Amino acid sequence: MHHNKHQLIHSDQQAIVALCTPRGSGAIALIRISGNNALPVTSSLAHLSSEQALIDAPTHTIHHGFVVDPATSERIDEVLFLIMRAPRTFTGEDTVEITAHNNPFIIERIIDLAVQAGARAARPGEFTKRAFQHGKMDLVQAEALNDMIHAQTELALKQSQAQMSGTLSRALAGVELQLVGLLGYVEASFEFLDEEQRDLDFIAAIRDRTTAICDAIKVLKQHFALQKQVKQGVRVALVGSVNAGKSTLFNALVGEERAIVTDIPGTTRDSVEASVYRQGAFWQFIDTAGIRQTNDLVEQKGIDRSFAAVQEADVVLLVIDAARHMTEQEAVVYNELLQLAGDKALVVFNKIDAVLSSLPVFSVSQDQIFHVSAKNNEGLTALQTAVEVLVQALFAEAKSPYLLNQRQFKLLTEIQVDLEGIAKTFADGVHYELLAYHVKELLEKVSELTGKNVTEHVLDMVFGEFCVGK
Fold it and tell me: Which one in 19, 73, 77, 136 has a CA-CA gap of 20 to 30 Å to 223?
């Protein structure tokens, strides 16, 4: 009976079911069922305490009851059913949310029963995809929802929330409007101006309009380079020679014994990482395996690892053993590392409690150099403050009201390059039909950004990145 019923419903409208809360132990699990047959599917499994049929319940009401196996009448769990009828739902379809006890056997059983009753398991991001298809949000807002779920910093959370309310969508609508204006101008000029007047005024106007649109896109793209930090938190890497006391410093900065500290040089293998939550962001401290000096040669493996760490880090601490003479070759390697790190590097002379040798000179400014004893807790406050200042500067630059992802950045860059191409091509004479054709192409790219007229392939790519249940 159920199977015949759901054969008639197209796969895109068929009820989908998924667990929306994280797997694992906890008090409550939320299972969402959404689609044209969501109410009959759930009704067949529901026994409400009020004795009424779930399918007859008014919209936006919550009902206590039990999920029951229709075949055996066995009670699976005591639950709450939240009934929401279209269109006032997240997906724009009939939706039922079941709040059950968070036990994996219960969850699997409820989902299995829903599937037997005519639902199907939701694909990753499918609830959000349906919300997009029913006009509840555009593609940019849908992607912002994904960013919001995965935000690792407060700033990322704020920006993705702003984006969900439409900050980037509005900015893109502005670009679209300017392109429509340009297209209208091209077509109007072609129709109404005589040739001489058209060419003179026209070339200047095209240049002005394309420049204005390019400038708007540049502003949108400006903060893309900083978004990794905003989304994923900051990476603080400790590099330097073996036994410079990096692990002791790492433990002092992280504030708990996470690295292995022994008297044997080079105990850290590859790298040790620890995440701490500070000032509204996740900070990841990376203690790299040190650079090793053997027979007057600096070991290449350690150098490669250190360079990779410097490239990926947002803040680099070059830790130098102040109690040991440095070889010339080490000095060369450290200067190269500092050059690569630039402003994001701080030089830390450690073990100042030991006998100081003459300290090497590095080509960095004085305010990038710190003297500490990680073991005796000396000089650490000043170092920590300096790291925080670098991180704050990073986030201060990134306070745009939106976050672009790779797809959006790529499309905006394509639009910008095409526009610059248009400005050059038509600088010495105007081919109206060709110009109108190019502008129409650009408008298609903008619609690919917001998803107003987007291919199934792009949709699958976007929503495939979501977790199931979103």
Answer: 136
Residue 156 pLDDT exceeds 90: no
- Check: pTM over 0.90? Answer yes or no: no
DSSP result, 387-450: HHHHHHHHHHHT--S----HHHHHHHHHHHHHHHHHHHHTTT---HHHHHHHHHHHHHHHHHHH
Number of domains in the chain: 3
pLDDT tens-digit profile of 207-233? 888 899 999 898 888 777 667 667 777
Q: Which letter, b or e, does each residue of 337-351 get, where b requires 16 or more Cβ atoms within 10 Å of its Cβ? A: bbeebeebbbbbbbb
Those residues with Cβ within 8 angstroms of residue 392's Cβ, 6 or more apart along the chain or in another chain: 279
The token pair that represents 70 in the structure block: 């229709």
Taking CA 205 as the corner, what is the angle to CA 422 and CA 194, rounded to the nearest 5 degrees? 105
Whether residue 137 is contained in a domain is answered as no
Q: Is residue 410 part of a domain?
A: yes
pLDDT at 274 over 50: yes
Among 79, 73, 9, smallest CA distance to 41 is for 9
Residue 343 has pLDDT above 70, yes or no: yes
What are the pLDDT digits (tens) for 106-125? 999 999 999 999 999 998 88
Same domain, 431 and 382: no
Q: Could you tell me the residue range of the domain that residue 11 belongs to?
A: 2-122
